[in-house]
Specification:
InterPro entries: NAD(P)-bd_dom_sf. The chain has about 100 residues and is mainly α. It folds into 2 domains: about 1-60, no CATH class; about 65-95, no CATH class. The chain is about 60% helix and about 0% strand. It has 5 helices and no strands. Helix 1 crosses helix 5.
Length: about 100
């Protein structure tokens, strides 16, 4: 994700965060957001459940495509081209 977000932001033409918050600050932010949601009934950006899921699944965001290329004969496009096409499609169909 650390590599994906800046590329996606550049392609989509949107500003992305330039710094990462330390984990304790993220827990504090999630707790404050949940209290806000409880008091106002409004949606939030980050919940404790989402933060725990992101932390637990962080190691699952690295993929090695060599086996699928070797055994299945698959080929993959360059990430930038795929993201460019995805952003264009989303804009064309009202997703962005």
């Amino acid at each position: 994700m650390r590599q994906l977000i800046p590329v996606l932001g550049r392609i989509a033409g949107v500003k992305v965060p330039s710094r990462q918050l330390p984990l304790p600050a993220l827990y504090l932010l999630a707790a404050v957001q949940e209290a806000y949601a409880y008091l106002t009934g409004k949606p939030i950006l980050l919940s404790m459940a989402t933060l725990r899921l992101l932390i637990r699944e962080e190691h699952r965001t690295r993929f090695d495509h060599r086996k699928s290329e070797e055994e299945l004969g698959l080929s993959f496009r360059v990430l930038e081209q795929t993201l460019t096409d995805t952003v264009a499609w989303s804009r064309a169909y009202g997703g962005l």
